[in-house]
Amino acid sequence: MALKLLETADYTEMSRRAADIIIKEVKEKPNAVLGLATGSTVLGVYRELAADHRQHGTSYRHVRTVNLDEYVGLGPDHPNSYRYYMNHHLFTHLDIPLHETHVPDGLAADLDEECRRYERLIDELGGIDLQLLGIGRNGHIGFNEPGTPFSSPTHVVKLAPLTREANARFFPSLDDVPRYAITMGIATILRSRRIVLLASGEEKAEAIARLLEGVVTPDLPASALHLHPDVTIIADCEALSLIPKEKRKGDAP
Ligand SMILES: O=P(O)(O)OC[C@H]1O[C@](O)(CO)[C@@H](O)[C@@H]1O
């Protein structure tokens, strides 16, 4: 199945287009299950959702959310935990009940059981209607690093050096970046009914070029998306800078 590719002029337009898709989903299905991501790329989307909620009153009262991942060892009060990030950047700006928002528990005593609980939770919610994804420079989605089997459910992962280095900008030093995380697996992500992947900036150009080459391999975790029937990639010019112009419109190979 072909991935749909939407090129945008810049980060702002990328964020607006993604927010529009989410807002439409929530209007059509007020109790939608949204799969959410963290990182820098999606921040603009969350700003757009917050602004739309303030200005137009789109309601999230019946929406449920599940986040992709969380660092092992960081709790909700830690400013670098993904739970803290989500509360701070999105949930407190919407009318969504906090108990309907879910992030893996990075402090769980039994991490394997936490992974199993998270899988059960997603099933009990009825599955993910719309999953938002960023992409790592090495092509990771969630924290599924190169080599992760496509059949993987939610699991504990040892973070790749490149990922720890890329995320060190949020921490006092590289040493403070956790070495492990819990992440939805690739199989978990692929069970979502619809997927929207965002990419912005030149540092993502290589990963996007490899993804659009169309080779499906665990060396590039995002390439698993070629196996899904409904994926839209929204990428700005810089993220598409390694793709010839004539190949940037419509369906990717
Ligand atoms: O948007 P960023 O900060 O480049 O991160 C890309 C991806 O990496 C992660 O932050 C994990 O490292 C994902 O959650 C995110 O989608």
From TrEMBL:
Coiled coil location: none
Catalytic residues, chain numbering: D69, N138, H140, E145
Keywords: Carbohydrate metabolism, Hydrolase
GO BP annotation list: carbohydrate metabolic process; glucosamine catabolic process; N-acetylglucosamine catabolic process; N-acetylneuraminate catabolic process
CDD domains: GlcN6P_deaminase
SUPFAM superfamilies: NagB/RpiA/CoA transferase-like
Catalytic EC class: hydrolase
Catalytic activity: alpha-D-glucosamine 6-phosphate + H2O = beta-D-fructose 6-phosphate + NH4(+)
Iron found in the keyword field: no
Enzyme Commission designation: 3.5.99.6
UniProt keyword annotation of Hydrolase present: yes
InterPro entries (UniProt xref): Glc/Gal-6P_isomerase, Glucosamine6P_isomerase, Glucosamine6P_isomerase_CS, NagB/RpiA_transferase-like
Gene Ontology CC annotations of this record: cytoplasm
Taxonomy, superkingdom: Bacteria
NCBIfam families: nagB (TIGR00502)
Family: Belongs to the glucosamine/galactosamine-6-phosphate isomerase family. NagB subfamily.
PANTHER family in the cross-refs: GLUCOSAMINE-6-PHOSPHATE ISOMERASE
Function: Catalyzes the reversible isomerization-deamination of glucosamine 6-phosphate (GlcN6P) to form fructose 6-phosphate (Fru6P) and ammonium ion.
Name of the protein: Glucosamine-6-phosphate deaminase
Lineage, uppermost ranks: Bacteria, Bacillati, Bacillota, Bacilli, Bacillales
